[in-house]
Fold these 2 entries.
Entry 1:
Amino acid sequence: MDGAHSAALQLKQLLPTSSADAVSEASFSYKENLIGALLAIFGHLVVSIALNLQKYCHIRLASSKDPRAYFKTKTWWLGLFLMLLGELGVFASYAFAPLSLIVPLGAVSVIASAIIGIIFIKEKWKPKDFLRRYVLSFVGCGLAVVGTYLLVTFAPNSHEKMTGENITRHLVSWPFLLYMLVEIILFCLLLYFYKEKNANNIVVILLLVALLGSMTVVTVKAVAGMLVLSIQGNLQLDYPIFYVMFVCMVATAVYQATFLSQASQMYDSSLIASVGYILSTTVAITAGAIFYLDFIGEDALHVCMFALGCVIAFLGVFLITRNRKKAIPFEPYISMDAMPGWYLHNRQLLFKRHSDSKKSLHHNLERL
């Protein structure tokens, strides 16, 4: 009897302790999620401000006929510094929060760009023009904010540290290997139709970008997490998987930028922003759910509310971008007349072509 009584007593003492540990673990996870979300929001805001600063620099140089090159202005360099700072914040956010939370927060950049564009717009507009062009943008901003709030509130909780052993275990797991096989087959098919059949549809190009982007964010989270652990004292840089992930991150980011550049030459930037955000976010969340098991242990209500937040954010981004005025290519990013010797070289080239054509004409007349 005494033994049974003491066992029951020990069980009663253990229950509150385990409950307290669970509460502490959940609190710590929520704190990490909050840090990651705030870093991502800060990073996207700063990147948006940086891009608009650089755009303002180009517009001001073009309108004032300033002979200086854009890289000789303080505004452009300030924009570059802010862009690097913002990208660093987004990069660090992957080390703290789940992939499924960080990726959809790219909507913050679209919201910020829309607000900056509306506030600092220089053109005149009529009341009916304002209603047609900007009310839906304000509605889109509101929807995107609501969607972002739902994403942050119902995002999955991630407790796993990005150690070399954990990343290697996820990399060789059969769900991710199956996902990689499907993704490689789909990517090769899309690339074949794009290159050989000239399928230049925006969905085809941006789906290629999204498939590459999903691998980029998976590797970014691994690299960022291992770097943060190394800074905290748990060295991870001696694992070969770190360098494998780093090389994959750089390679996929470069090819992703290449396809985006090709898409920007054929389609309007607002269409690329909306379609690209929807496709890239969907594919990246799927990759994160399979590789990092983001939604394991989450109840159905949280998953459904998270999905609802994604849909609302998608709708908001679509409304923001669909009413944007198409950009007029008023001047190139690299001002040709600012390049050394450009004017003289082209003048000599034109003179040479003119002389050659005159000689050819005289020669033909003499033969006749």
Entry 2:
Amino acid sequence: SPRKPLVLQRNSSLGNLLYPAACCSAVTREFHQDGFLVLEHFFTPEECDSMREQIQGIVAEMEVPPHCRTEFSTKEGEQLQAQGSSDYFLTSGDKIRFFFEKGVLDERGNFLIPKERSVSKIGHALHAHDPVFKQITHSPKVQVKSKSTKCPVLVVLGSRGFPSPQPAPLAAVTPHQDATFLHTEPLGRVMGFWIALEDATQENGCLWFIPGSHTNGITRRMVRAASGASTCVEFVGSEPTYDDSQFIPVPISKGGLILIHGEVVHKSELNSSQFSRHVFTFHIMEAKDTSWSKDNWLQPTPELPFPPLYT
């Protein structure tokens, strides 16, 4: 059976995870062996509650015209039909915008349930425009310093809030690699920060990983479509069929952080429980000697270049 992931407490060093040459610790070896690392109790309950309250306030004040309301899905066909055919998604990289659970909108974009239970994802620039999430993203806990380079250049790519209120179920997230959507040359320059604002369990939709799958490269990319195409984005290549028995569940307590290598395969299952599962996530990139693909859907803008992690 798959072995359990290494679980570390809050005082673990993160800087060495980005630059493995700086340290040969078990922490570094485990992250680069598995492609993810669990850091329990990284954020305080008070910080988590602050983020949850901020998400609830943002949702309460949201105003999205019916023609811009799109359902969030990780299934390829549904992604192209919904987000992929909408400028609302493609131009969301420097804004705070809203994407909705499947089945909560009628054919005209009107809500079938209360709007506060309809939101699947808020993205993609919470880290830039919201003071609470900006503080968390650039907190001393996250502003790691590497000893392996004289001047590491780390930038923030994008951020997302996942409200997952109940009783509305959180849809499953299909197996994927973040590098499919956030491609760099060379690979291996992107890492995700996945923060549990509540306990994430197998019942309410914790993450599942295939340990070591980040060493196999990628076979699929989502890219901007050529001008005149029927959708704004398209997929190049195909996602392999994964063996479910290779995945291991990674439950984590409120305040826990999971570091996610850009190429590790991960997913989450349907939340059909009576418990919500609020999450805040963002991605950072080692920018030194890294080429950000101009085909990526997410692009820096004059209004919001990718901000440096260190402030």
